[in-house]
């Protein structure tokens, strides 16, 4: 039984790290809360396993799998949040004090459990009631702790909140307001599917298609928009830095906004009306026109981000490692 549980846990740990590893940095708050809740679920399964002997092996395997996922998600997000809290580049100091604090809390928990053990050992229903009460308190405390975090770098969710507010009201949300509005349970993402840093062969299969795609692109990224699936794929140049990635993500999210309701600037409202008038305007023409809109809009948006305290020299957007090299359009040949 122990071998089955260990094998299940190790396999789950490997698959989860491979599947969700890059998302743990991008959405550290959400995955931190997920790890805390899943850890409580794993403990509940361990408590319930002896009550149902028929399902004992399966229950223990699931519990061990959950704990291994918690180990990956919890450890990775702790490192990300420790880096965020090390405001003086004192990550080792913050990590050491965090470890000491956890040790102190565990010691206090051990002492309290020794005091409570004589009271609950003879009453299983009371023990279960205490577990549910303390678990609810634990989840609430962790939720409040995660909600209190103010991260000044932009991930896709925070960028979407800030951009939508900017398009609708012409104002840029400050980090505190955006972090308070950021969803922690559901709705991590906008309806648009945005993929940054995809390989070039995913967008084109011939030189002719590449020339067609490059036309009108004066920035070091190539963007393809699938209107029917509301999916944006972005190829990044070798020279694309954080500001380029931020512009590409903003570009993609603006295309997604064209398929939603809500007020937009005049130029984008005109494009949205053209899309809704049908028959569908070709996506590559819309992408070219939004490039022109962004030339005016993005510098104002970027300055607004910097003015209210966002750190735009780095980001927490999920970006794949693929990069490509190509000649820009005839209007701008030099990168």
From TrEMBL:
Residues in Root UVB sensitive protein C-terminal domain copies: 171-326
Gene Ontology terms: cellular component: membrane
Family listed: Belongs to the RUS1 family.
Keyword Transmembrane helix: yes
Organism lineage string: Eukaryota, Metazoa, Chordata, Craniata, Vertebrata
The name this protein goes by in its record: RUS family member 1
Domain (Protein root UVB sensitive/RUS) ranges: 6-169
Keywords: Membrane, Transmembrane, Transmembrane helix
Subcellular location: Membrane
InterPro entries found in the cross-reference section: RUS_fam, UVB_sens_C, UVB_sens_RUS_dom
Pfam families reported for this sequence: UVB_sens_C, UVB_sens_prot
């Amino acid at each position: 039984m122990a071998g089955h549980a260990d094998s299940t846990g190790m396999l789950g740990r490997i698959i989860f790290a491979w599947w969700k590893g890059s998302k743990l940095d991008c959405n550290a708050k959400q995955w931190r809360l997920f790890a805390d809740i899943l850890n409580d679920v794993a403990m509940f399964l361990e408590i319930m396993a002896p009550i149902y002997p028929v399902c004992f092996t399966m229950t223990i395997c699931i519990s061990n799998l959950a704990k291994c996922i918690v180990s990956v998600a919890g450890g990775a997000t702790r490192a990300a949040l420790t880096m965020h809290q090390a405001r003086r580049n004192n990550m080792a100091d913050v990590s050491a004090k965090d470890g000491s604090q956890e040790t102190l809390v565990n010691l206090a928990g051990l002492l309290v459990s020794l005091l409570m053990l004589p009271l609950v050992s003879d009453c299983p229903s009371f023990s279960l009631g205490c577990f549910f009460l303390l678990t609810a308190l634990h989840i609430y405390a962790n939720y409040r702790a995660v909600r209190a975090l103010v991260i000044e770098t932009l991930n896709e969710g925070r960028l979407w909140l800030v951009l939508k507010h900017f398009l609708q009201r012409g104002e840029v949300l400050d980090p505190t307001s955006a972090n308070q509005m950021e969803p922690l349970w559901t709705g991590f993402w906008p309806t648009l599917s945005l993929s940054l840093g995809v390989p070039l062969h995913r967008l084109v299969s011939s030189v002719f298609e590449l020339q067609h795609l490059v036309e009108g692109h004066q920035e070091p990224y190539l963007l393809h928009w699938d209107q029917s699936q509301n999916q944006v794929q972005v190829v990044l140049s070798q020279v694309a830095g954080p500001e380029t990635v931020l512009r590409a993500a903003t570009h993609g999210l603006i295309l997604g906004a064209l398929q939603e309701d809500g007020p937009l600037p005049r130029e984008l409202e005109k494009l949205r009306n053209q899309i809704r008038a049908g028959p569908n305007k070709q996506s590559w023409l819309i992408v070219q026109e939004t490039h022109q809109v962004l030339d005016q809009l993005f510098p104002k948006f970027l300055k607004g981000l910097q003015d209210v305290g966002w750190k735009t020299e780095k980001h927490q957007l999920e970006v794949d490692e693929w990069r490509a090299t190509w000649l820009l359009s005839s209007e701008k040949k030099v990168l």
